[in-house]
Design a protein that fits this description.
Blueprint: H1 13-50, H2 53-61, H3 71-85, H4 90-119, H5 123-142, E1 145-151, H6 160-175, H7 177-180, H8 190-193, E2 202-208, H9 210-223
Parallel strand pairs: 1-2
Keywords: Signal
Length: about 220
């Protein structure tokens, strides 16, 4: 591999183009690494909030930098300034860019190792994730949950046409693009959570006083 040397004078157009591309790539990589660091630090703060006080203190103490209004943006701008200061020399730019990326990677590795130490085997974290998973499952079931308004006197009868309508709606739901593009759960067990073929389409019949039923129907008619 040949080494790019610093040239004297103003430099060629090709050198300026390479430096412009390198600066853009450097900024993109640093932005991604800093965004990952910020997101992971935010998760640590979430964990600290659900931990008992005796376990949360070490987490808080491990935060190496105080929060700022826009820490990622500020740090990326600083890194960019360093890169601009060596804009006339490709070799110096590569050294500065490699140093930036290596430092950010090292910081992310250290923070990730600390995150694993805190989170793995933690009962409060397990309970927190279980609650999140439960809420995601509830929202997923709600995608095919329908409430049907009925006049109260109809509760004493049995109307086959209603059930035929439910079958028609259920089949339309299963064929719909929206239903077939539902994303999977972050943590999914098909046997327990179901898939697109087994996810139930649920209808809940609610019976209102005739006047209330008529009022709701009129509102729906005006909206349609």
């Amino acid at each position: 591999n040949s080494t790019i040397k610093c040239g004297g004078g103003g430099g060629s157009n090709s050198s300026s183009w390479r430096l412009a591309q390198a600066r853009a790539t450097h900024r993109t990589i640093c932005t991604l690494l800093l965004a990952a660091h910020t997101a992971l630090a935010a998760q640590l703060e979430t964990i600290a909030a659900i931990m008992p006080p005796w376990a949360a203190n070490p987490i808080s103490a491990a935060q190496s930098t105080p929060p700022t209004p826009h820490p990622t943006r500020l740090k990326v701008d600083n890194l960019s300034d360093v890169a601009k200061s060596v804009v006339d020399c490709e070799e110096d730019f590569l050294v500065a860019a490699n140093s930036d990326i290596a430092q950010l990677c090292a910081e992310n590795i250290l923070l990730w190792q600390h995150f694993l130490t805190v989170a793995i085997g933690s009962e409060p974290v397990r309970q927190h994730l279980a609650r999140q998973h439960h809420m995601q499952r509830v929202k997923r079931f709600a995608e095919a949950f329908f409430v049907v308004d009925n006049p109260r006197p109809s509760a004493s009868g049995c109307y086959d046409s209603n059930y035929q309508n439910y079958v028609i709606v259920s089949e339309a739901v299963r064929r719909s693009r929206y239903f077939n593009l539902l994303p999977p759960l972050a943590v999914e067990c098909v046997e327990m959570d179901g898939d697109l073929t087994s996810l139930p389409v649920i209808f809940e019949d609610q019976y209102q006083h005739v006047a209330e039923f008529a009022r709701r129907r009129s509102i729906v008619s005006r909206k349609s």
